[in-house]
TrEMBL record:
It holds the Pfam family NAD_binding_10. CDD domains: SDR_a5. Gene3D superfamilies: NAD(P)-binding Rossmann-like Domain. Residues 8-188 form the NAD(P)-binding domain. InterPro entries: NAD(P)-bd_dom, NAD(P)-bd_dom_sf. This is SDR family oxidoreductase.
């Protein structure tokens, strides 16, 4: 069983990710939270937690949890501090992950992060995500970058549309995004891959088969 550090565990999508990992026979979540009071909900479920702020040094996360195997970044500032959290916070966690020989870094990005200059309303957010994604690609770490369309709180459909570039906009439930992120944690899935997802008609596992590759 592999230990997965989840950055942004207290977020709407992050909580679903942690629950999926906690129910998995392959993965064990370590919930990374920013405030001490956020630890209680996870500890009540016997889920290990670590207190860390993406705007500060993160090396203690790995010093105290030397058994972390992979990292899943699902954190976000909610548009308040996109360059400090979504960009620099991600870079800080990437650096710490590399220093501690993490096997895989899964990034929750956003559709449009490949061309932030074309965005109107979310330019700064997408630019921050773009910079974080590019930093991860050049880090030398094994990675998966998942770029969903507009997030909804609808129930999981367990089906998606997936391409490296969809060339169309759409929405997708946080539940299906969470399932996709957990599935790409597998060693043989989406290694050094970047792709976009929206709701669709193909089962998530089947859609990911096109990115089943060699293990790095």
């Amino acid at each position: 069983m592999e230990n997965i550090l989840v950055a942004g565990a207290n977020g709407t999508t992050g909580k679903q990710i942690v629950n999926l990992l906690n129910a998995s026979q392959y993965f064990k979540p370590i919930a990374m939270v920013r405030k001490a009071e956020q630890k209680k909900q996870f500890e009540a479920e016997n889920i290990e937690t670590v207190l860390a702020d993406l705007e500060e040094d993160l090396n203690h996360v790995f010093d105290n949890n030397k058994t972390i195997d992979k990292v899943l970044f699902a954190a976000g500032s909610g548009g308040k501090n996109v360059f400090k959290v979504d960009q620099d916070g991600a870079k800080r966690l990437i650096d710490a992950s590399k220093a501690n020989n993490i096997k895989k870094f899964v990034m929750l990005s956003s559709m449009g992060a490949d061309k932030p200059e074309e965005a109107n309303k979310l330019h700064d957010y997408l630019k921050a995500k773009h910079n974080a994604d590019e930093y991860l690609k050049s880090s030398g770490l094994n990675y998966s970058i998942v770029r969903p369309g507009t997030l909804t709180n609808n129930a999981a459909e367990h089906k998606i549309k997936l391409e490296e570039s969809l060339n169309e906009h759409g929405e997708i439930s946080r539940a299906d995004v969470a399932q996709t992120l957990v599935k790409v944690l597998n060693d043989d899935t989406a290694n050094k891959a970047t792709f976009e997802i929206i709701k669709g008609h193909t089962l998530i596992g089947e859609a990911l088969n096109k990115f089943s590759t060699v293990v790095y």
